[in-house]
Specification:
alpha/beta; 2 domains; single chain; Aspartate Aminotransferase, domain 1
């Protein structure tokens, strides 16, 4: 009989994953076990420079002493109480978020999709409170990504994500991203909310123009719609400013946050104006786990650290260097380099999957954004030396691909 028993611990773990976990992810062919700074190590002892950061989550990298201390401190206190009780860390984090943003109030969630779900409910409730019960439509944009729940996937106009789950949320209108005339054709008297990413992440690192965001703000004011900025991926320092919309000078009525806010622990947040907040009353929205004292205490440390001017200046400087160095790679396979801060796209002329897979052999962890874009969203503590190593290895990979084409 053929012996098919896995021969190593790594093989056993991969087999157990295949046997016992729902197969909704296509995972990389190794098991990660620990990390230091911007470097990850697998169970076989191989090292990789991380250009993914858990999909723009691990902003402070791995084994950060301050983050570790904040986690240890939080573990010695309350882990969970529910939102039936006051806890200091939640209130202190809310204070910080309000202090450092346009917002007057905060509602905490456990994830980005939950934050966007809540934002939609809040926006609809604003209209309901005005007696506008038929003002329920939501306008989103092409190439957007707002989450995987039924409502948020309804706002993510990609057939692969939507087709198996029809019927979707009714009343969703899809305008063309960065096309103000397209938006004008859909935003009207029945529009409850307009939701947009100032920089699209999953859609390919597409930056909204200042004119587009200003125009959306004017249209929302004209029709009484709630403007929602989804900064789940582009917010919390990723672009070299604390909030991506600061580059444009346009403020929303609601902003949703998540990914990096607690340095890798699950948290989301809905930041809102007082006008939005006053539409919500006791019992109209809630979450058992959201805003617990442990995770909010850690998030308070992360937010304080990232919002320091010197930290943001580092993100801006290394991000500019990353774009400069990527632009120096002489390859006909490269179509474009774009981005802001440490949210950068390398667009190729074809499928990026072979490049990402080859990267594993060269000690690089990378991720796509669509079929033809490699998305660089590394820990915000990466240095120029990491960029130099990336460019050196990418040059080799792209050259080999061109030769073998």
């Amino acid at each position: 009989m053929l012996n098919t028993t896995p021969q190593t611990r790594t093989d056993q773990l991969m087999q157990d994953d295949h046997d016992h976990i729902a197969q909704t992810y296509k995972r990389a062919p190794f098991v990660l076990v620990h990390g230091e700074g911007a470097t990850l190590f697998d169970s076989e002892g191989r090292s990789y420079t991380d250009w993914v950061a858990g999909i723009a989550v691990n902003a402070l990298g791995y084994s950060d002493p301050g983050l570790t201390q904040a986690i240890q401190h939080g573990a010695n206190g309350l882990i969970h109480t529910s939102n039936l009780y006051y806890t200091a860390p939640q209130i202190e984090l809310a204070n910080l978020l309000v202090e450092k943003s346009f917002a007057d109030r905060v509602f905490f969630t456990n994830s980005g999709a939950e934050a966007n779900e809540g934002a939609l409910k809040f926006a609809r409730k604003v209209q309901y409170e005005k007696g506008l019960t038929d003002k329920t439509e939501v306008v989103c944009f092409s190439s957007a990504f707002h989450g995987r729940t039924l409502a948020t996937v309804s706002l993510t106009p990609k057939e692969k994500y939507q087709k198996p789950f029809h019927p979707l949320l009714p009343g969703v209108k899809v305008a063309e991203f960065n096309n103000l005339e397209s938006a004008k054709g859909l935003i009207g008297d029945k529009t409850a909310a307009v939701i947009v990413e100032p920089i699209q992440g999953e859609g390919g690192i597409n930056m909204a123009t200042p004119e587009f965001l200003r125009g959306l703000r004017e249209l929302c004011d004209q029709y009484g719609a709630v403007l929602i900025f989804d900064e789940i991926q582009c917010g919390v320092g990723r672009t070299g400013k604390l909030w991506a919309h600061e580059h444009v000078g346009v403020t929303p009525d609601i902003m949703t946050l998540a990914k990096p806010l607690a340095g890798g622990l699950p948290i989301g947040a809905i930041l809102m104006t007082e006008t939005v907040a006053t539409a919500m009353h006791y019992g109209e929205h809630g979450s058992t786990f959201a805003g617990g004292p442990f995770v909010t205490g850690v998030a308070k440390y992360v937010l304080n650290r990232i919002s320091q001017p010197e930290f943001l200046a580092h993100v801006d400087e290394v991000g500019e260097y990353l774009q400069e160095r990527l632009s120096e790679i002489n390859s006909p396979l490269i179509k474009d380099v774009r981005g802001k801060g440490l949210m950068v796209a390398l667009e190729l002329t074809g499928d990026v999957t072979p490049v990402i897979e080859a990267g594993y052999q060269h000690g690089l962890i990378m991720v796509n954004a669509g079929t033809d874009v490699i998305r660089f969203v590394p820990p915000l503590i990466v240095e120029k030396s990491h960029v130099d190593g990336l460019v050196e290895k990418l040059t080799i990979i792209l050259s080999e691909m061109q030769t073998n084409a």
